[in-house]
């Protein structure tokens, strides 16, 4: 595996954290061949497919050289250990084959020795070779791959190659190893803070990733602490009249919303909205997204109070509806602006700028229309209207959502995305539940999106 492949492929196992100790690879025989009989883990023996046992002088030498090299290493005799680890690699290749897991173990052992000797240029290719062999033998998700790449991660952290190390916790997280990812990213953050870089962009990005890990595992209290730390750092460096601070505050607000703290969430979102209105044009999509967030918080507030304070619940729904109408208006304005200036934007913007802006605006539009239908249905529930009476406002919002998707994706060339598709399908499913088999009829009677 090449270094570039390590960076680019997010399906590989990575590291747990930095340690001062050296981790030598264990004998791969038993793990690599789990069907071995009791004699299968004898030195230099390997069971093959027909059940026979193969042994040769090279496999025996590999074991002897490996054990003796470890002894020298523990005694601090690094030069002697290096020679024997080099010999162990050659004997493993001769005895087991070039791509056998025993070769990976031997490469990892020598790489660890070079790491301790600070011969970093020699260590890295050996780590990568070990990972490549193990991946080919067992697949990228095998625990042995994780152990090998753990050592590579320690290597990168020890050199403060934090960008290379960043891949480590992202890959671990994608593999479902949340605790390992959390431990590793905390190590990375600690190193940055101890090095006086706690307010750097890199450290802020690490903290954001850590908070996302907490959010995805519903550890809202931990996520909130990290988000407050981020906001504190950004606010100190840039003040509140900055979009960077607004984004940090908005992230905290969404975390508070997820934990049910609507009061603080609403306060942060309202402050974010005021700053955005001062810094951005009135039809900027960030303002539309901000209004959508406020509407969702108002809906959550409604659900928390509808049994005890119906009048307050109704007021929250009215507020949510107002926010959503404004969000829809801004999203539409943004979409029209993108489409009208499409050719102009191609000349003066980076490739994809206008496309991305249009996709974001359409996603916000569909989410706002979908949420508006929920507001109308919640109002119907509060007013105790019989369910057999179709909610015309909810109906209109859902049909507009479906029409908007067809209008902008199919007719006006806004590229589809998973987020856009997900919102469209959600609207379609809710419309089917509301109208039953009459959805197609309703859509055929529906005018184009307005």
Automatic annotation (TrEMBL):
Pfam family, one: TPR_10
Name of this protein: MalT-like TPR region domain-containing protein
Organism field: Glycine max
Lineage, highest ranks first: Eukaryota, Viridiplantae, Streptophyta, Embryophyta, Tracheophyta
